[in-house]
Amino acid sequence: MSRFLIYGANGYTGRLIAAEALRQGLEPVLAGRDAAALDAMGKALGLSWRAFDLGNAGVLEREFDGQPLVLNCAGPFSQTARPVLDACLATRSHYLDITGEIDVFALCHHAHERAVARGIVVAPGAGFDVVPTDCVAAMLKQRLPEANQLVLAFEAGGGPSPGTAKTSVEGLAKGGRARVGGEIVEVPLGWKSRTFLRDGEARSAMTIPWGDVYTAYISTGIPNIETYMTVSPATIRRVRRLRLFKPLLGLAPIQSWLKRRAGATAGPNAERRERSDCRVWGEVRDAQGGEARLELSAPNGYALTATASIGMVHKLLSGTTNTGFHTPSQLMGADYVLRLPGVRLITP
């Protein structure tokens, strides 16, 4: 079986994923809202396409009917995950997406029982959000089974795509989040800062509401989780100043203006993706003072998203997994990220 549907295929990341699927011998159906863009893309790749929006559940069910799997690449996923997921449940199509949004992971997790009843897998976060960090968390749990604290961090080069930039705008209004005592709690923007060593040089970083605040707990059961991204000290200061304006950041006119600016981002071109890479750090500690650390190097996050998501597509099309909600490490194994091209452990 080689056919499946990519929704949002004509977006920045969707195009990379479609090309990778084709390279690996799959035959994705391209889908999205922009008929002209999909037509041009379909002709260039020799693939079929369908244009439709997400506003009508009946249309979605008709378009998804007969598709064994739908990979949702249309962000922000706060707007697209629910209708696509509901249609997948109706048509018994496996659901994948490439979100990093905490609330979307919660939405998908809460659909577990329905997914089991319908005989499908629901596996959000199939890209850089959150495959490498989720796998690092799961590997660290294996090394320190009684861990009760988890820190994850990443450095992603190359710059964001339009969809990622828009999602970040939405996140500003929600503030920071961390997991404390097993519960997700709201914390201030730029709540904590610290440094991580990359090749002996310190990288400043601040806490962000990364998807692992939700998924790493499901994967490991570790009750205290902080997630960091490397940024400059000046950026940390700017983000912390935004705390004063948090009530305004959620207003619709301001969100619309910020998203228009974010949407103008082109995303890194092929040369920039090739020249940039990612690092992921993980640390766990237990109550007895034990600790373990991992660091891994990976290709550009968008390149990793393409290979990671298509690897998960292959897994689901093969039909060899239990139904229901899965994090990436639950679906593919803790070492999945190490099987992806260009990924290697720096801290063995």
What does the model show?
The protein is α/β, with parallel strands linked by helices. It folds into two domains: 3-128 and 302-340, NAD(P)-binding Rossmann-like Domain (Rossmann fold, 3-Layer(aba) Sandwich); 131-300, Dihydrodipicolinate Reductase, domain 2, CATH 3.30.360.10. Helix content is 43%, strand content 25%. It has helices spanning 12-23, 35-45, 57-64, 77-91, 102-110, 112-118, 131-143, 162-174, 212-220, 233-241, 246-249, 252-263, 270-275, 301-318, 328-332, and strands spanning 3-7, 27-32, 49-51, 69-72, 94-97, 121-123, 147-156, 176-180, 183-187, 193-198, 201-207, 224-230, 277-286, 291-299, 324-325, 344-345. The strands form three sheets. The protein has a seven-stranded parallel sheet with strand order 3-2-1-4-5-6-15, with helices on both faces. A seven-stranded mixed sheet has the order 10-11-12-7-13-14-16. A hairpin with a 2-residue loop joins strand 10 and strand 11 (201-207). The longest helix is centred in the last third of the chain and has 18 residues, at 301-318.
